[in-house]
Design brief:
alpha+beta; Phosphorylase Kinase, domain 1; Transferase(Phosphotransferase), domain 1; paralog of FGE (formylglycine-generating enzyme); 6-stranded antiparallel β-sheet; 5-stranded antiparallel β-sheet; 19 strands; about 30% helix
């Protein structure tokens, strides 16, 4: 065990030109932190430590979710350090190396968060000067957080820069930093943002070379060389926006991070779907339908609705929703890849076909198939039987049918709006929802109406039945869930159910309401619906 003042240093998280970062424990508060110990060569200038302390104090005054939180600063036995919030999600550089180019919407989500943090600094006349993927960290929910503010500036101002070489990372360094004129401005960080956004989409460093001199030449003379498939990844308008951000003259760039992201966010995204399809080996020239139909048997079909990739708000807004429950909080923004959701819950007719084709399967140990008609949702299905139904569908359709994750259910059924109920925010009556046994049981799907349709086209008769989803239940999951494609805890005792049933009270009909049951439960209020990803080999056969 290595001690640095009150900090126990554990494993090394990373090394760079400015120092070494350790995972550490604050022994006073018993809090996990990250400690950056600065390189001894940075101490050659007697004024360096004072400059560093001044910059650290400014950063410590920032309270922004996209700028790393500074807890402490100190010097022990000539070793200068800063203690920061520990971020467990790794960094953008490692993610790109692992995944390659990211989907457009995910790259834009990360860029938006980075720009929000940078803009807060730019408005305080602070410029990062060394923005790069390795300095963009992620918390446990996948939110982007910027680190290493101001270090490049301090090194450049001190005598340490001559002994350590370049104060900043060559691949992302703006031309004015190479030339020494004009002074760095927020547009300097805009240049680095342009480099990073291109790298997120392509998986390749934009300005790359064997030696620093080769990279300098690209920045100062040659300019950016985009990959050959660039125009298929991003549309011409966004390409022009990024080319402007990479202009050698900082006066020709967007003036700050907010200006760059506003331009990226307001220009049309017509090429982003083709980018996603190419990554999934789907023909990008075919116009994708919003609904498709799978045939299970003669006269037995299943409709699916396309749910596009993108961000949405998940969870309850406690200000607007008087029925908000603690396990639906906090409301948080997440990103989901595109997928297809069943338009309706699985019906009795569809489940009968499953049993007919699989004699080893039974409806349950106590009852025969329900007496409800074939167009009623199937209920009294334990979670494992719902999974078995999905397995059967995968075999006969060659499509990756599965139960939806909770986040997918909420997005598909809630739609693009953030209403409390399917019809809006006003409280329901019996004409809008079946609740508290006001009806004698389930409602068949042919009684679902236009008002029961989400903006994506998914039919959800709130208060008809609960629906199983894939996730294990954890009452605190929303507090630490990933910001990208959350799939629930790794284990648990109960599975999540969504939707509210005809036996329940109206607060369960909210589109954010969640509850749970043991997975082996047979309950006449619980059924399910299914979904599938866009990544499967038999995609084109689903089109007429």
């Amino acid at each position: 065990m290595t001690l640095l003042g009150k900090y126990e240093l554990h494993e090394i998280l990373g090394k760079g030109g400015f120092g070494t970062v350790y995972r550490a424990t604050d022994t006073s508060l018993r809090r996990e932190v990250a400690v950056k110990v600065l390189h001894p060569m940075l101490m050659v200038d007697e004024t360096f430590v004072e400059r560093f302390k001044k910059e650290a104090r400014i950063l410590a005054s920032f309270d922004h979710p996209n700028i790393v939180t500074i807890y402490d600063m100190g010097e022990v036995d000539g070793r200068v350090f800063i203690a920061m919030k520990y971020l467990s999600g790794g960094n953008l550089q490692a993610r790109i190396l692992k995944e390659g180019g990211l989907p457009f919407e995910e790259a834009k989500r990360i860029m938006g968060q980075v720009c929000e943090g940078l803009q807060a600094a730019h408005e305080q006349a602070m410029v990062h000067r060394d923005l790069k993927p390795a300095n963009i960290l992620f918390d446990g929910r996948g939110n982007a957080v910027i680190s290493d503010f101001g270090l490049a500036k301090i090194v450049q101002m001190s005598g340490a820069s001559s002994s350590m070489g370049i104060a900043g990372t060559p691949a992302y360094r703006a031309p004015e930093l190479w030339r020494g004129t004009p002074p760095a401005s927020p547009a300097t960080d805009v240049y680095s943002l342009g480099c990073i956004f291109v790298e997120m989409l392509t998986g390749k460093v934009l300005f790359d070379g064997v030696t620093p001199d080769e990279i300098i030449t690209q920045h100062l003379i040659d300019g950016p060389k985009f990959p050959g498939n660039w125009k298929s990844i991003i549309n011409s308008e966004k390409c022009e926006i990024l080319e402007r951000s990479l202009h050698r003259d900082q006066n020709e760039r967007q003036k700050d991070a907010k200006g760059l992201f506003n331009e990226l966010n307001t220009s049309p995204d017509e090429n982003k779907e083709s980018c996603i399809k190419e990554k999934n080996n789907i023909n990008p020239t075919r116009k994708q339908k919003e609904e498709i139909t799978l045939t299970l048997a003669s006269g037995i079909t299943m409709d699916f609705v396309h749910i596009p990739a993108g961000e949405y708000w998940m969870g309850t807004n406690t200000t607007l929703d008087e029925f908000s429950r603690f396990h639906e909080q906090p409301q948080h923004r997440i990103y989901l890849d595109e997928f297809w959701m069943a338009k309706y819950p699985i019906t009795t007719l569809q489940y009968k076909e499953f049993i007919n084709r699989n004699p080893q399967e039974t409806y349950n140990d106590f009852y025969t198939l329900p007496k409800n008609g074939d167009d009623f949702p199937i209920v009294s299905i334990p979670w494992g039987k719902a999974v078995a139904f999905c397995d059967w569908l995968r075999k006969i359709t060659k499509v990756s049918i599965r139960l939806p994750f909770e986040a997918e259910w909420e997005k598909a059924c809630r739609g693009a709006d953030i209403n409390i109920f399917p019809w809006g925010n006003e409280l329901p009556d019996q004409k809008k929802a079946a609740y508290e046994a006001s009806f004698s049981g389930l409602i068949p799907i042919d009684q679902y109406r236009e008002k029961d349709k989400s903006s994506f086209g998914v039919m959800r008769k709130t208060g008809n039945l609960w629906e199983w989803v894939s996730d294990w239940y954890d009452c605190d999951y929303y507090k630490n869930s990933p910001a990208s494609n959350p799939q629930g805890p790794n284990f648990g005792n109960n599975k999540v159910i969504r939707g509210g049933s005809w036996k329940n009270s109206l607060e369960t009909f909210r589109l954010t309401a969640r509850w749970c049951m043991p997975p082996n439960t047979w309950d006449d209020t619980v059924g399910f619906r299914v979904c599938f990803d866009n990544q499967y080999s038999n995609f084109n056969k689903l089109f007429n």
